[in-house]
From TrEMBL:
GO CC annotation, single: endoplasmic reticulum membrane
Transmembrane segments: 112-134, 146-163, 175-198, 296-317
Taxonomic lineage: Eukaryota, Metazoa, Spiralia, Lophotrochozoa, Annelida
Annotated signal peptide: 1-23
Pathway involvement of the protein, from the record: Protein modification; protein glycosylation
This protein's name: Alpha-1,3-glucosyltransferase
Pfam families given in the database record: Alg6_Alg8
Family assignment from sequence similarity: Belongs to the ALG6/ALG8 glucosyltransferase family.
Length: 333
């Protein structure tokens, strides 16, 4: 084994051990009826996806009360739940029994759920981190290893995924694969990876503007025929989207229902459990009393676009990887 593989292996083992130690603790909502927490939300989606026809996944019905953890993530999350649901059912069908498994808790089931998160993390996020730092970052191999290790040991991600219980490493991993592909000058593969990330968690929309601006800008700055590249990128994006959404596109009502579940504008721009800048500001200014929901939504959209506009224009005009990475960081702030 050469030195690089040994380093990667040791780094991965260290990252896995820390994750496993965290996951031995309880998850959020453990033993707290009636709603429990995100662990139950994920388990419930496995139950729904396994038992219900695909068209009913996002629709309220006698077997799918949307008030009880209705699915509100994009199709790839639902497909992931479906696959996990099949595996869960093959281990012990009581884990995903329709209606009867609500709030199911057992040590065996917890072990299974923890393994699903670890597997997704190690297969999607880990390799993206290694390829990104060893192929796309500058510096000595020692600094690359340290950067990779620091990223893998980032406490926020470990605590939320392996403690609290979520699958952020999937969308984050796909996003990092997309950035890596762009760094390696593979714009088509990068587009596919980013569309997949977006279709796992709609939160990735935050990153969409820099991707769009960088790719569009680079269409018309490169040596290649810009229009042809633009057509290729557009086709790849639409085909990937189409594959993710195919089962929900055959019936317009179903499509509308999925979209309204993903962007629940009727519920307002923030809810008590979801924190964002509007939520923090509302302590000082009571937005919800001053404006209607639809005007609040417009304010949100306009302020976000205005804040992003400067580096989006800059990226369109002078696309470079360095500016692209800066814009990705900017937009989150
Ligand atoms: C959704 O379905 C549940 C269970 O059948 C029902 O109690 C609830 O009223 C329905 N909600 C809506 C908004 O139709
Ligand atoms: C399935 O899970 C239930 C509930 O935890 C348990 O009572 C049962 O023994 C399990 N069945 C098997 C085959 O492990």
């Amino acid at each position: 084994m050469n030195e690089l593989s040994a380093t990667v292996l040791l780094t991965a083992v260290a990252a896995i051990v820390i994750r496993w130690c965290v996951s031995l603790n309880s998850y959020s909502g453990e033993g707290k009826p009636p709603m429990f927490g995100d662990y139950e939300a994920q388990r419930h989606w496995m139950e729904l996806a396994y038992h219900l026809p695909i068209k009913q996944w996002y629709v309220n019905g006698s077997n799918n009360d949307l008030q009880y953890w209705g699915l509100d993530y994009p199709p790839l999350t639902a497909f992931h739940s479906y696959v996990c649901g099949i595996v869960a059912n093959s281990f012990n069908s009581s884990w995903v029994a329709l209606g009867e498994s609500h709030g199911h808790e057992s040590s065996q089931h917890k072990l299974f759920m923890r393994y699903t998160v670890l597997l997704a993390d190690v297969t999607i996020f880990f390799p993206a981190v290694f390829v990104y730092f060893y192929q796309c970052s500058r510096g000595t191999s020692q600094t690359k290893t340290l950067a990779g290790l620091t990223t893998l040991l980032y406490p926020g991600l470990i605590l939320i995924d392996h403690g609290h219980f979520q699958y952020n490493s999937v969308s984050l991993g796909l996003w990092l694969w997309a950035v890596t592909a762009l760094c390696l000058d593979s714009h088509l593969l990068g587009s596919v990876a980013f569309v997949l990330a977006l279709n796992y968690k709609q939160m990735e929309l935050y990153h969409a503007l820099p991707f769009f601006a960088y790719l569009l800008g680079s269409c018309f700055k490169g040596k290649e025929n810009g229009l042809w590249k633009f057509v290729k990128l557009g086709t790849v994006v639409m085909v990937t989207f189409g594959c993710c959404w195919l089962p929900f596109l055959q019936d317009l009502q179903v499509t509308q229902q999925v979209v309204s579940r993903l962007f629940p504008v009727g519920r307002g721009i923030f809810e008590d459990k979801v924190a964002n800048v509007w939520c923090s500001l509302s302590v000082l200014i009571k937005f919800k009393q001053l404006f209607s929901t639809s005007s609040l939504l417009n304010i949100c959209l306009i302020t976000t676009l205005c804040a992003s506009l400067p580096h989006v224009i800059d990226l369109l005009w002078r696309p470079s990887l360095h500016r692209f990475k800066l814009a990705l960081v900017c937009i989150i702030g």
